[in-house]
Structure formats: structure tokens, C-alpha cells
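agent> call fold_tool(seq_1)
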Amino acid sequence: MIASVSHIIEEINRKLAAHDFGEQPSELYEPIRYILSLGGKRLRPLLTILAYQLYEEEDQFEQVVEPALAVEVFHNFTLMHDDIMDEAPLRRGKATVHKKWNANIAILSGDVMLVRAYDLLLGVSPDRLPVVIRAFNQCAAEVCEGQQWDMNYERRDQVSEDEYLEMIRLKTAVLLGFSLKMGGILAGASDKDCQCLYDFGVHIGISFQLKDDLLDVYADQAKFGKQVGGDIIANKKTFLLIKALENASPKQRVELEEWLSRVTFDKEEKVEAVKKLYNDLDIPGLTRQKMDAYFERGLQHLQQINVADGKKETLYAFAQWLMAREK
């Protein structure tokens, strides 16, 4: 990873660990410290700071760390509540909050995280705070819309490619877009540049999620950190499954639908059988094409930002690193 990026992530982690979210009752606040201690890429606060640095000196970001942390706290709040809805037992290899404590505690601790996210935004200068809050509120509502669509799709037999891409735009990508846009707002960037930053984030966010779909099936288990093939086992309607159902021959579709309908099965056998169908249909290639198309569109928005090209190098290099990741 880029040296300056590593330094920023270290500072983000240090500030998160030191932040006073509250103490008593411990059942309310300990889950917050717990979920934040589980790690993660810290992608969203990092993007806020990198966007801010497009307009400021590289080592001048201390004043935007707290607003950047707000995005990370909000993101983890959504994870805490999503895990309850998904009945997920693990988060980053550790017990989820509702499993370690219980669902009621996870709901309430998540609620406090949302409140604390707004607290962290209060350091924004008064002239820019209303703009930030409005953008944050729109983003937060859209993330919830994306989660609801995702749950709706679990009950449907068919989901179109366009529906899926819109769902991941809302659930995942808009928060990356907001993170970058907020960095621009805090630096006093023009409305045009802030929109370009947002569009850059949304497009690489969609590409980022498509890469996650691909990694879930094709990652190296030793590097991935969670069960490879989990989406196949759960019949999750990812881009890969949608395209496979769309492109399958009648014989292939019968085989695929048979695996989707089975209630009892050997997990490894199912993953290998569906993976073979994906390979026969070149689903990995189709996914990479779509992923690359969104990534390139994102880079076009980055290029349109009105700062010297040299200032964009770290953000560009980080985006490239993100898409080359293996976990």
C-alpha cells in the first residue's frame, strides 16, 4: 500500500481507538468499541482525507480527521444492524455483536453509533456544516434504501442486472461517493469538483462491489478471510448468478436452478458445480468487463477535477490498488 495512505490509516485507527463514545452502561458502549476494533480497510474515512488533500498540503489533514471518522462510525453502524437482519454469525472472522451480546443490545448500540457520527460532524465549520449534513442525510437514506432492496430481492426468484447494479449503488457506492465529496466540501472545492469526486466514488464503489462478488467465488481461501463460495451456498443474487441465469443454455439453466432449489446439499459440491457453470459461461470475464467499465468511468470523473494531475496520483494509485486486491 502507498506509504502516505498507510500513515493516514494509522492515524484514523489511533483516533478511533482513543475516541470517547461513552462508558456506562457498559453493555451499550462496549459493543461499539468491539466492532470498531475488528479492523477493516478504513476505506471511507481515507477517501475523505485523500479528497481533502487534493486541495491542501499533503500533511495537512488533522482538521478533517473527525468528520472522516463520522463516515467510518456510520459505516460500522450499518454493518451492526445489517448483521442482525442477515442473521450473520461472523464479522471479519469474529462473532457479530448480536451473537456476542444479543439483538436488542446490537440495535441500541447501533443507534448510539449513528448519534455519535453526527457528533463527529459538529467540528465542521459553520458555513459548511449545513451542506455536509444535507449530503450525509441523503446518503444515509440511500444506504437504507439499498439494504431494503437487497432484502426484497432475497424473496424474489428473479432480479435483473439493472436492478442489482442500482441496489449496490445505493447500499455500497453512495457512501464512497459521499466520503470523497465531503473531503472536497471541507477543502472548499467548487460544486463541479465536489460532484466529480462524488461520481468518481460511486463508480469505483460499484466496481468495488463487483470485485467482492468475484472474490467471493474465486479468491484464494488463505487470503480471503472468510468462506469462499459463501454467496453460492446462500443463493445470493450477485452479478455472477444473475448473468449465469441470463446466459445459460436450457440444459445449464436446469442444472443451475436445481442447485438453487436444493434444501440439503454438500456445500463444497455445490460451490464446485456452480463454479464450473460460471466458468463454462465465462461469468468471470463478464464480471471483469463490467467492473472495468465502471472503474474507467470513475477515473474519467477523477480526471475532470480541476487540480494538477500530480495531486491526483495518490488517489489514482489507491484506486488501482483497491481493485487489484485479493481479499
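agent> call fold_tool(seq_2)
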Amino acid sequence: MNKRAFCFSAFALSAFGVLSALAQQPAIDQSRQNAIVRAIGKAAPGVVSVNVIQVEAERVLDPFSRDFWDLFNARPKVLLREKQLNSVGSGFFIDNAGHIVTNYHVVEDADKVASVTLADGRVLDVELVGADKRTDIALLRAKGANLPSIALGDSNNLLIGEWAIAIGNPFGVLIEDPHPTVSVGVVSANHRRISPSIGEGERLYQDMIQTDAAINPGNSGGPLVNANGEAIGVNTMIFSPSGGSVGLGFAIPINRVRRVAQEIIQFGHRRDPWAGFKVEDVAGLHSDFRAQLGVAVDTGCVVVNLLTTSPAYQAGLRPGDVILGINGQRVDTSVDLDFAFWNLFVGDPVTLDIDRGGQRSQIHFRIEELTQ
């Protein structure tokens, strides 16, 4: 091959390579627009930073009296003044009316919920519509035009291993940027029950969604999103020895969040569910007392106090009955019942599996509202 022919061949090969690369570029660009990217594009505009203000009193020395008192070697005058602390959590729009869901613990100690910052940079004033401490959900409302809401998914239809995207504003006070941060993982487990000690016995952390998507301080209240861009949970907590994410994050399922939000919008608060009886753990009762009550089982909860006006009494429940299950879930201790009832809403049906002197039966009634 002469020199001219060689140069032409080299040029042809080079040109072919360039043309091939150009031909492949659209395919590469298309592959970058995967389901995760599309889901983030749908959901991220609806995520907000929740800006709260907390005022603390601090002791300071009076600068006008310090030098004078120093002359006499005496203690200078101490003044009290208010110190304003700003903190940031996350939240997201759930409808076009401006309602924003976040965690109750994001606003719990705030003296004022000042505003929310949208991903497009807008800062809107908000009001606290209502909150439910037991489910750790708070509802805010912002006023404005073109408010981008996130579609709500179905947390009863989750698959272990499906994509889970945590969107929020971790360390928001340190990163002055309205765009939310995204971390991607999977649904690691579902229906996780957290020990009552985590919520100090006052918060319902059951049926939680577990994910290994990184959740960090400031992510609380932001959405956990599926591959369709739908919110399937509210990012709430992590388990970590260091305080940072180690792949053990938990979100409140969106189906519960949806019902709490609907209650707050309609009634201004979450109505307290009421069944009208109290129980004691069978395992904790003295054998003589168990025999006196006619308890014939070793686990479950025995009814020790029951109001005759309660829905449970009207349905046939009686003192001495041992509750073994509720709505298909096994009951071993009173904690199991507490978790179950806290997850119910006024009007929900209840089926109790009971043992009465060795005879098994079921009691059916509906939850009523606890009123004064």
C-alpha cells in the first residue's frame, strides 16, 4: 500500500469512527433519561424547605456597666435577651390548594413557622393548619399561584427492592440553595414496627417503610418517591450510631399520611379514635387473679375496664375477655393494641379475636370519636 492509499484509509476509518459516535450519541442521551431521572423531574419541583424560627433566652453582660463595675471588682449586670434560631426541615405539596405535608417534629418546638422555600426560589408565607403528634404529621398551607404538587402513590402496594428516592433539604441552613437534594436506594423492608421508646410512647411509628436511600438531618418531612414520581412516604428518621446515614432510613407510609391530612383539612385536627375499654397484659397478671377472671390463655390482653356506652361494649365485649387479635393482627401485649388503635380512624371497622373462658369468638364494631 502506497503512502497516499494508507492516508486515505486512515482518514476513512477516522471519519467512520466519528460518524459512529455521532450516531450513538442520541441513544446515549436517551439512556440517561431513565426512570429515576424522570421520577425526580416530576417530584422535585413540589419539594420545599420549611423555615421555622425558635427563640431562646440567653444571658449576656451589660456592656454599659461592665467597665464601671470592674473598678470595684464587683459582678457586672446581667441582661436577658432573645436569640433567634433558624432551622430547616423539608416538606412537599400534596394538592393545588397549597397544602404541604411535613413531620410534626419539624415544627414541634418552633415559635413560628416562618415560610417555605420552593425549588424555583420562591419564598412563600405559610400557616400551620393542624398537626397530629402521634403520627408525627403536620399540615401547612401556602398561598401562591402555580404551586407544584406531587402525586400520591399507594404505600399498600410496595415491592421489596423497588426504587426509592429520598428528596429533601439536608443541612439546609448550611447550603443556601433552594434546589432539593436527591438520594436513591430501594425499599429495603415494609411494615417495620419501631419500639415505642423511640417516640417516647407518644408517637406511632409502625408499618414504617425502610429504605437505604440516604436520609440526613433536614430531610425530615420530605417525600420518599417511587420510580413513577409518586410520593409513597414521608422521610422521618434514621438509625445511626454516628448521626449520619448508614442505610437505615424510615418513612411514614403515604396512605396513613393521606388520611391524617384529610382529617386535618376537614376537621382542623386528627380526631381521636375511641373503643371504650382498657386492658392488662395476661402475662403480667397474678395466677390467682387470672383464675378469678376465668382467663384460660397465657398471652393476649384481658379487658379490665369497659364503659357500657362504648362501641366495644355495645358489640358484646365484656370484662374478663382476652383479646388475642385485632383486624387479623396478633395481639400479645397492650402495646400491640395501642399501635393498632392509633393507626385507625373514626368510622374504621374493628374485628377483635377474643377468648372467653376457653371459647373463641369475634367482636365487630366501628371506631368512634373520643369526645369530652
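agent> summarizing second result for user.
The chain is about 20% helix and 35% strand. The CA atoms of residues 104 and 133 lie 6 Å apart.
agent> awaiting next instruction.
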